[in-house]
Design a protein that fits this description.
By secondary structure, this protein is of the alpha/beta class. The chain contains 17 helices and twelve strands. α15 (373-376) links the parallel β8 (349-352) and β9 (384-387).
């Protein structure tokens, strides 16, 4: 099935696991010796890799590549990131809708996925840093002839991998996942990589948990000056030397013996990489941000964890105590966010419930809530936002995401009330709801779930078997691979 990121409802993430099952069973049912995965936008990369990993044949992944750079009135603009910016400018009355439409026409001007470091570009980098794709896979633009050349070489190489019996399980090792986590930090990658790589690791039986993301990625500097953490775009990244230049620069932090699909180690593929633009790929001595890793938060508001992307956040808000302004679900948020009588200031904390895996359903990208119009008109550009949702990798802000357990299953997020005080301390990795245990117990006794069990079909299966965000949101019965053997031959 096709997972069209801009079209599918309610969210493509609802169907990531279904697509992975489609891939897994198609591989198992057909007489295949090796597999080439053609992936592009956000969910196609993890879903195809998850399905293939469950079968464990020789496999190569080829990303579709980013669009060419956008440019509006002489300034670089990026799909997703600039849309968020322009949308807020329109709502604040500082940009006309006509100018917004003009900018949109200048933005997505070729085939390809988003050209910022959103989830699509992040996952393309994860493919290369995991060793699951050919060297150079991450950054070649979709319409560049070198993308076709890479695909051609992958087609030749997969035949050799079949003869070598180089299966995906020999590529997707613990060392490979650690390399991907370090790389994600160095590129300022999307928070969505967390949930996707946790699910992928589960398919191949590699032990990986949420705390690994903080432990391994913490203090890794962000070296890539690329939207939304910087100002450049993926085409610039390619011309600067692509992902091999990043991996070479962080070479002391990676597992140099991790094998890749071309038969060489990741370090052998990157050791001689040359950077052609240090304004795009910065040296370790001059990073974009000192900490590009994903911060994993713990506390009574997220007992199983939550995540935040420091490189996209406002430094002044990384330690903040504010009053909760609560939206019970996405409909409540949409109904009240632009109400001029909404009781909110820039010092408050916006809280959104009901947007986790089961609550929405499907774990949508709504965590980067648009700010109230009344604050935008005053020039406010960021407030602390907390939810059990995801956000687009193209987005930015001081946004706490993936709160687990989610509110729909009774996580403490469900118990937050307007006026509660919440304390965020990213350096200490804590998220605390300043409510006594006794009061939380009283609220829990009165809490009633609002999510109904779907009556049938895929939604019913999803609701009954989906894991929480801290476990990768895979289905419980899909964790662990089963190989490509078929139960019996056809007659």
């Amino acid at each position: 099935m096709s997972l069209g990121e801009t079209l599918m409802r309610p969210t493509t993430m609802l169907y990531r696991n279904l697509a992975s099952m489609d891939v897994e069973e198609s591989i198992r049912a057909n007489p295949l010796d090796g597999v080439v995965l053609l992936v592009g936008c956000d969910k196609t990369t993890p879903s195809l890799m998850m399905g293939a990993a469950s079968c464990d044949l020789p496999t190569i992944t080829i990303s579709g590549g980013p669009m060419l750079n956008g440019n509006y009135r002489g300034q670089p603009i990026g799909s997703g990131t600039s849309v968020w910016e322009f949308s807020e400018e329109c709502r604040a009355g500082r940009m006309s809708i006509e100018s917004f439409m003009d900018a949109e026409a200048c933005m997505s001007r070729s085939a390809g996925h988003c050209m910022v470091m959103g989830t699509a570009s992040t996952m393309a980098c994860m493919v290369e840093s995991l060793g699951a794709g050919m060297p150079g896979n991450a950054a070649i633009p979709a319409v560049d002839a070198r993308r076709h050349a890479l695909a051609h070489h992958a087609g030749l190489r997969i035949v050799e991998m079949v003869h070598e019996d180089l299966r995906l399980s020999r590529i997707l090792t613990r060392g490979a996942f650690e390399n991907a986590i370090v790389t994600n930090a160095a590129i300022g990658g999307s928070t969505n990589a967390v949930v996707h790589l946790l699910a992928l690791a589960g398919r191949v039986g590699v032990p990986l948990d949420l705390d690994d993301w903080d432990r391994i990625g913490r203090d890794v500097p962000c070296l890539l000056d690329l939207m939304p953490s910087g100002k450049h775009l993926m085409e610039d990244f390619f011309y600067a030397g692509g992902l091999p230049t990043i991996i070479k620069e962080i070479g002391d932090r990676i597992d140099r013996e991790a094998l890749t699909v071309n038969g060489k180690t990741l370090w052998e593929n990157c050791a001689d990489a040359e950077c052609f633009n240090e304004g795009v790929v910065r040296p370790l001595a001059d990073p974009v941000a000192s900490n590009g890793g994903i911060a994993v938060l713990r506390g009574n508001l997220c007992e199983s964890g939550a995540v935040l992307k420091p490189s996209a956040a406002t430094p002044e808000l990384m330690q903040h105590r504010g009053r909760a302004v609560v939206f019970e679900d996405i409909d409540d948020y949409k109904a009240r966010i632009d109400d001029p009588d909404l009781d909110i200031t820039e010092a408050d904390v916006m809280v959104l419930k009901g947007c986790g895996p089961k609550g929405y359903p499907g774990f949508p990208e709504v965590g980067n809530m648009a700010l109230p119009k009344k604050l935008l008109e005053r020039g406010v550009t960021d407030v602390v936002r907390i939810s059990d949702a995801r956000m687009s990798g193209t987005a930015y802000g001081t946004v706490v995401l993936h709160v687990a357990p989610e509110s729909a299953v009774g996580g403490n997020l469900a118990l937050v009330q307007n006026g509660d005080w919440i304390e965020l301390d990213v350096p200490a990795r804590t998220l605390h709801l300043d409510v006594t245990d006794e009061e939380l117990a009283r609220r829990r006794a009165a809490w009633q779930p609002t999510t109904e069990l779907p009556p049938r079909g895929y939604l019913r299966m999803f609701h009954e078997h989906v894991l929480q965000a801290d476990e990768g949101m895979d289905f419980d019965f899909l964790v662990g691979g089963s190989g490509a053997e078929i139960p019996r031959e056809s007659h």
